[in-house]
Amino acid sequence: MEKILRINMGADGGPTYTAVPVGAYAGIAGRGLTSTLVSKEVPPLCHPLGADNKLVFAPGLLSGTVAAMSGRLSVGCKSPLTGGIKEANAGGMASQVLARLGYAAIVLEGKPKDDNLYKMFINKDGVKIIVDNSLKMLGNYDLVEKMRREFGDKVACMSIGPAGEMKMSSASIACTDMEGRPTRHAGRGGVGAVMGAKGVKVIVLDDSGMTMRSPKDPEKFKEANKRWVDGIKKHPVTGEGLPAYGTNVLTNVLNEAGGYPTHNFMWGRFEGHTKISGETQAAVEVERGGSATHGCHRGCIIRCSGIYMDKYGKYLTKQPEYETVWAHGGNCGIDDLDAIAMLDRLDDDYGVDTIEMGASIGVAMEAGLAKFGDADAAINMVHEVGKGTYLGRILGNGAAVTGKAFAVERVPVVKNQAMPAYDPRAVQGIGVTYATSPMGADHTAGYAVATNILNVGGQVNPLSPDGQVELSRNLQIATAAIDATGMCLFIAFAIMDQPETFQALIDMINGFYGLNLTAEDVTALGKSILKAERDFNTGAGFTAAHDRLPEFFINDALPPHNIKFKVTDEDLDTVFNW
Amino acid sequence: MEKILRINMGADGGPTYTAVPVGAYAGIAGRGLTSTLVSKEVPPLCHPLGADNKLVFAPGLLSGTVAAMSGRLSVGCKSPLTGGIKEANAGGMASQVLARLGYAAIVLEGKPKDDNLYKMFINKDGVKIIVDNSLKMLGNYDLVEKMRREFGDKVACMSIGPAGEMKMSSASIACTDMEGRPTRHAGRGGVGAVMGAKGVKVIVLDDSGMTMRSPKDPEKFKEANKRWVDGIKKHPVTGEGLPAYGTNVLTNVLNEAGGYPTHNFMWGRFEGHTKISGETQAAVEVERGGSATHGCHRGCIIRCSGIYMDKYGKYLTKQPEYETVWAHGGNCGIDDLDAIAMLDRLDDDYGVDTIEMGASIGVAMEAGLAKFGDADAAINMVHEVGKGTYLGRILGNGAAVTGKAFAVERVPVVKNQAMPAYDPRAVQGIGVTYATSPMGADHTAGYAVATNILNVGGQVNPLSPDGQVELSRNLQIATAAIDATGMCLFIAFAIMDQPETFQALIDMINGFYGLNLTAEDVTALGKSILKAERDFNTGAGFTAAHDRLPEFFINDALPPHNIKFKVTDEDLDTVFNW
């Protein structure tokens, strides 16, 4: 990972590329690299779909090594959804492959001078940038199938569907999984629209002939990785809950906690929750010959994913995540797992963020376009997005635009990005993260649910404002650092409860790079990433006024606890005082 | 004007009202009152369509008196279009009538608990608030006709069309003119959407039995008014240009100056300009039995309006303003005056801002929805807005939403509000006003065109950045003060060139109120209004980053001068340093 591949899509005569040494970006990776580079090189007031924005794909510090769980990819840019900085994080194979190819990052720059659509093929021999207009408006599934036929079964793809080509603000970038399916998405913030604006349909990566990245201190690294694996396997969440039921194990948990946003954040409990819970989902998957325990990338030992077959036992989609099941399920009053799985498949194929899409549909239902619970209507709406009809243009640009178009007041967004599957009134810690994260409403930016609801890393009463700012602050710092390592965020459960597992992670990094980092250094890294992100956002015009929840969370009480969001503005403004 | 009529649309059991003394708001009026009240009483982060927003209708200091040109109405609220504070200003009869009824303001507060649509009738005997769902989705023309049948020919109406009921961000509030037609609009910033959110279709005003407001010092007032009238009549713009050809006299002028934004701000000159110029328009109006010189309210002596008949000599619309002719004309490549007049009529009837609507259509044409110059397509698009189709929901929410929906980069907005009919590259002074006005892009907020192009109030080279900040600053201050007086902004031409006419205005105010204000007091008033507005916007999250033009004005040169916007960010940030 000693070079950065810069591809200028706007060069005269067609795209050009150059692989340059990492230079000033040496020693940073993942979100650390995407956010630093975007913050340094992208003018904060540029049009996100214009020539001045840059799209950065960066594997983490430990990606491409044998370190377990190290396969996450960071995708960064100025977000067309929020107008601020964005790091969207994905599993799948791309990160490992990119790292083994020796790239610390691919950076797409400029803007094509014509309407051509490009595919790229990158392997040990170099880079090919090829016009291929036959790919226009292909869904991700057909697209990657075509790429595998052309470039072989072992490639990893990063691609956009029709939504990305139409530059919709909910457009995702799909990364292929171990089976070569486009199921793992850098979903949030419209990164797919930026790829579409660069005229790039797919980047095909092939690491044939490359080897694992090798550590400076192999013994130390290997030994630490063993402790690391043991630590993850012994924690109840990463060793048992997630493998057995996947992230959707949370449906029953959040519903029980009264924090499961139902009918566009009207209530905290959903009548149909058992029909769409992780437990039910796992049973259906196993019964139909799919799988309830499956990894999304090589080196995953948690294996929180799965394979969802349709009624006829035919592959439909990967196991939908908790947030997806919620967004299309309880949020829209839908309790039909097959319909939700179909929506997940369509989202992956058209290339849209499942959270944003579910939130848009929820807002549209509130506006009266369909009844809550109408699964057929929801499926049709996603098709409208994929086809780019006028309604699709509204929905596909996210919940905020949908709310604007239909004059809906209850629009659950922060910085224009839709809230995920935890009501901030019943889980006040996550409310602090939603409000203040530079990313907009984002559960992964500081997952206070862990401590508020799962009692991981201690206990902080989810219904009280007390302690939430400190909790969110610490988690946001830790998360920024984890997102720089290429580690799956779920390792946080283990390291929050088990200091020795956190130490194993630090030891792995030190063993790999020949460093002597301490826990304090990790904290400093997280802070520096957040600072770069907030600096960018300040330049883009964000102030404390943007670090707020929509007023209905402050004014309207959420059943069953009948609770409002109670963390004060003054306290929110202290999150980044460290 | 010693009382404020506060109407609570959200009261239990239906709307209630109370007339309260002006109290702390004594001595301020027009934009001074709307902006002060909104800044004091509306939470800057509230949802603009929610219960916490307030819609304020305020006549000016001299409205309802015999003072010539004093019939302007200020309408204020938090804008659904910009998210900041808004004062939209309209001619027509409402301001005079409201003032004679003794109201310094009507304030619509709260939010109805049901879906009923209300009409209000206000006369010397009091206030009636009546549910009338038969008015739902009526166009403004049918609506006011119905009101005149019900309440008599002499009433003045303030009303919304279907766009306001659908709470679109381009929705206007129509004020009836001297003929009782809904042709004078508080157009900008979506004030009609706020009226729609309050559930109010129309406010019918009847000043029968009321008299002119009487001055404290009748002699001084009368004598000053005489000097005032003389001053306005002797200035070439207010005495000759505007009466003869209306505001559309500017088409040829701006085209000649190379500052006439054509095809969505692609060029500075329009081939078809002579076909749609004020000179041509006046000839058509006279030829068809309309009128080219007509006032919009009692007491107007400039009479810049007119009556536009269709080919068959039947009334079609009032004389479309320059900005309207531009927005639907050159901006969309349309050179057909009858089509433009029809678009003006439809805008007035559906109740949308002509500038925002023309800009939305221009952006849609850039996106390829129709060809530039296709008048039928443009007319159809406005019908889509009026019908509230999905396309209409996009267009009707303004140019920024349209740009978002169709991923257009060239979107000529500041603070989400569409730019009017002067390209800021060829008229750099107006660019400073667009960028920095608390209202968003707004030519009326500091009409630097006067000095840049018309050489009124001195000369400042329109193509140079030099002197533009000072020019815009002084004009923004003066305009805020004028907007508080109820005076038509066109009096600015006379007072900028003729100190004695400015003195006559001050003497009128002093004669009316028994005061001893000086020119410095007027400046202080303007500054205090701007400060209140900027304070609100700061609370709503606006920073210097929002005081910027879209990047294409900085990056792309405008033919024929091949000039970019050259005022630096640093200079823009000094506009409000006084």
Provide the descriptors you would attach to this structure in a database record.
homodimer; 578 residues; alpha+beta; Aldehyde Ferredoxin Oxidoreductase,  A, domain 1; Aldehyde Ferredoxin Oxidoreductase Protein, subunit A, domain 2
Could you describe the 3D structure shown?
The structure is a homodimer of 578-residue chains. Chain A has helices at 30-41, 94-100, 140-151, 162-165, 191-197, 218-234, 236-245, 250-256, 278-287, 322-328, 337-350, 354-366, 375-387, 390-395, 399-405, 428-436, 449-452, 468-485, 491-497, 499-513, 519-539, 551-555, 569-572, and strands at 3-8, 16-21, 55-59, 73-78, 85-90, 103-109, 118-123, 126-131, 156-159, 173-175, 184-186, 200-205, 291-294, 305-309, 315-318, 413-414, 417-418. The relative contact order of chain A is 0.13. In chain A, 40% of the residues lie in helices and 14% in strands. Among the domains of chain A are: 3-205, Aldehyde ferredoxin oxidoreductase, N-terminal domain (Aldehyde Ferredoxin Oxidoreductase,  A, domain 1), CATH 3.60.9; 247-422, Aldehyde Ferredoxin Oxidoreductase Protein, subunit A, domain 2 (Orthogonal Bundle), CATH 1.10.569.10. Chain A contains 23 helices and 17 strands. Chain A has 578 residues and is α+β, with helices and mostly antiparallel strands. The mean pLDDT of chain A is 97. The longest helix of chain A has 21 residues, at 519-539. The first copy, chain A, has a 6-stranded mixed sheet with strand order 2-1-6-3-4-5. Chain A has a 6-stranded mixed sheet with strand order 8-7-12-9-10-11. In chain A, strands 13-14-15 form a 3-stranded antiparallel sheet. The A-B interface holds A 43-47, 49-50, 52, 166-169, 193, 196-197, 389-391, 393-394, 397, 401, 404-407, 409, 538-546, 548, 550-552 and B 43-47, 49-50, 52, 166-169, 193, 196-197, 389-391, 393-394, 397, 401, 404-407, 409, 538-546, 548, 550-552.
